[in-house]
Amino acid sequence: MKNYFHQLLNRRTVILIITAMLLPIFLCVSISVGAASVPVTETIRILCGYDSESRYLYIIRDIRLPQSLAAILAGAGLSVAGATMQSVLRNPLCSPFTLGISSAAAFGAAVTLYLSGGEISLADNMLFGSNHFFATTRIGVSLGAFFCAIITTVMVILLGQVRGTRSESIILVGVAFSSLFSAALMFLQYIADDSRLAAMVYWTFGDTARATWNSLILMTVCVLPASFYFLYHSWNYNALALGEESARSLGVPVRQLQIFTMLFASLLTAVLVSLLGIIGFVGLVVPHVARLWIGSDHRFLLPFSLLFGGLLLLIADTSARLIFAPRILPVSILTAFIGVPVFLSLLLGKRTQL
Fold it and tell me: What's the confidence (pLDDT) of residue 137?
């Protein structure tokens, strides 16, 4: 038994190390490939701070590096948020998106875009380069999406607590809010003119290409503290997996852990969705794949979810950039196409149990 435990521990450690090593490798590859290829050697030189051709500097520092880093941060944040939500609610179908947070953010962004007018041409000012309309509304759209998502999170938690924070209650409340905000979004799109409608539809496409260095700073400020909180309480999540009564007998503040985990995970999701748009299935599928590969011990599950989620979204983002090059496919479309069959295979294989 002792040898088996050490073998299992070594296996999980090796998986974590390999995943951590693959991340910078794929980051270099992601930055190098695209409609305009950059030699890998030049990529490494620029990342190390050396001078290079001005066109390579512009492509990497201003376009591809922010996009790739945003993919890593978003994938890591959404994955660890989904893993912790599934743990505290003990429900494999729970994720930030099944709780209606993404729909709330989409509605908040749509309201902001509708009120802003959208008089300037979408093609001239939102899809290409310097865009006065997009620049002046980017902050407002993000704030509208963020506040609507946070308000919805608080309401879901409060309504779920009416029945004692039961996982099925919270999920049902989330489904109800998701349907409500989806209907409200369709209403706004129905009454909007062509310019507003195009802006609303464009924002709902989750796309890392809209990331900037300023948004990366905000994402990092949110992802790192929330991830530290989750990792710090990994043993408590393991105790909670034994049942609430058992966790309480071990000294775990169950209600406090559940509430703060939900708030941190929802805050993390709200920030990411408000900055990048809706990127679905990452927070739902990655935790299941992580449990399948590395087990349910949160000391390994949470760091692996962070690493693998960032790696998966980085690969998906790079693939979306190459499929229809030079046109860039929003990564949310690719994650949906990949996530649905993967999740169905896990579900039909009865591998989604916690």
Answer: 54
